[in-house]
Amino acid sequence: MAEPGADPEFAYLTTVGRRTGARHTVELWYRRIGDTVWFLAGQRSDWIANARATPGVTVRIGPGELLAGTARIETGDDGGAAAARRALASRATRAGSRALPCRAGRPPRSPWPST
Question: What's the whole-model pTM score?
């Protein structure tokens, strides 16, 4: 994985639409911490609802890095969510809202219970 300072400003998260089953890609600010890619979103973001329904996602960072992962909504401060919020605070307009980590390099199958 690249050093955090070397990462592009945006990543592209692809989820599966909860109603249509079609793939949806959004451009988001992100922060990579260890093997987790973190995003922040408001509670009503469509990509959050899609990730809840189908947690298998892909994340594209830069022109050549495509990661498959499993989305997990972090509503508390456990699992690095607080550190991710702080790291993204300078980029996000709604810092302190929900953080969604995607485990890079893991199969799109959730090891966590659904929330």
Answer: 0.74
